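User: tokens in, sequence out, please.
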């Protein structure tokens, strides 16, 4: 059977906190802990992101279990940090730079949305799903006090000048995380050049330049644009776009694993988390190949260990001839025009009838 998607389980090991929460998170953590913690009473405290679950009740009050976590947003950013080290808000005004971005590995895998006033936006939904990484070992975090020195500054409301500031931050020693990921081969293999489904990925005016950038990214000639229809759609309409070859889909999947296997999140102050192991499962039947079922997974220690072959990739689209697609839409447009003309005639008839009743009454 053909592979429709890929599921994976990742185990990370590290020390310290690599993903802190906002300042107001201390209020929620204080309630979840259920007992007094002095550090959480101060404004200058840094709290890690947590996953929370209810594990019981005590004296009629819920008891929660807190685990350190690394958010999916942090993981996705770290995966593509080398591709996109910073955000450029002016990229919409530089077509060459924009095309390089949306045709890059990061653009194809992470997705994007660019909106510009007065122009049709371009967008691509990410085919890569990444969940939060949640702590799975029993190490308990603490709140450590720290100090930061700075030049002394005179303040009107201070009794004496001081360059020393005190703060608290949550800390932990050895920590082990686990998270899941999935690659949707359906979303990965198709690049839309049609705005009918509201997922126009490339401005058609720059198509040839985009295909040149895409060719460099994939290492093989980017396919021409054609008309396609989703195979199993009962209400599908032909859609113009680029359908990547099976070999090119495998190349992009390998790029995901290249980044995933080398993932290491480092944070100033001593915190880090790195990938220790990756397990993969090919989903051919979504009903039977469930992510929670431990059967079917295999270990991937290098990109070469990935067992996905080009012939295994499911092709979700079927090609439609240009004449057939245009005839299809011409029929729809003709029907819409006839419907509008009929509605206009009905409104005119109603208006005339109303005017005749009014003149008769007078």
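Assistant: Sequence out:
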């Amino acid at each position: 059977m053909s592979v429709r998607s890929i599921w994976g389980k990742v185990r990370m090991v590290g020390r310290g906190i690599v993903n802190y929460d906002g300042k107001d998170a201390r209020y929620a953590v204080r309630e979840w802990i259920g007992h007094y913690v002095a550090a959480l009473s101060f404004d200058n405290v840094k709290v890690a992101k947590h996953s929370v679950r209810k594990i019981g009740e005590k004296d009629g009050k819920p008891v929660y279990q807190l685990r350190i976590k690394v958010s999916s947003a942090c993981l996705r950013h770290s995966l593509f940090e080398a591709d996109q080290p910073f955000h450029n808000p002016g990229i919409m005004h530089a077509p060459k730079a924009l095309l390089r971005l949306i045709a890059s590995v990061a653009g194809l895998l992470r997705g994007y949305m660019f909106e510009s006033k007065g122009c049709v936006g371009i967008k691509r939904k990410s085919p890569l799903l990444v969940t939060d990484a949640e702590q799975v070992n029993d190490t308990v975090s603490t709140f450590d006090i720290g100090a930061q020195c700075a030049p002394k500054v005179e303040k009107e409301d201070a009794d004496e000048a001081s360059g020393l500031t005190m703060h608290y931050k949550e800390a932990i020693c050895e920590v082990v995380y686990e998270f899941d990921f999935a690659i949707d081969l359906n979303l990965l293999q198709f690049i839309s050049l049609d705005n009918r489904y509201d997922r126009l990925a490339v401005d058609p005016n720059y198509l040839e330049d985009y295909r040149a950038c895409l060719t460099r990214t994939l290492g093989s000639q980017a396919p021409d644009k054609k008309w396609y229809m989703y195979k199993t759609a009962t209400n599908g309409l032909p859609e113009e776009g680029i359908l990547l070859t099976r070999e090119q889909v495998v190349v992009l999947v390998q790029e995901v694993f290249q980044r995933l296997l080398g993932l290491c999140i480092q944070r100033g102050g001593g915190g880090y988390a790195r990938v220790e192991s990756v397990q993969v499962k090919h989903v051919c039947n979504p009903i039977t190949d469930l992510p929670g079922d431990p059967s079917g997974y295999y270990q991937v220690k290098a990109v070469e260990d990935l067992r996905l072959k080009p012939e295994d990739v499911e092709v979700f689209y079927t090609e439609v001839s240009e004449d057939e697609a245009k005839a299809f839409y011409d029929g729809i447009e003709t029907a819409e025009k006839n419907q509008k003309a009929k509605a206009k005639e009905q409104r005119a008839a109603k208006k005339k009838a109303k005017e005749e009743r009014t003149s008769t009454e007078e």
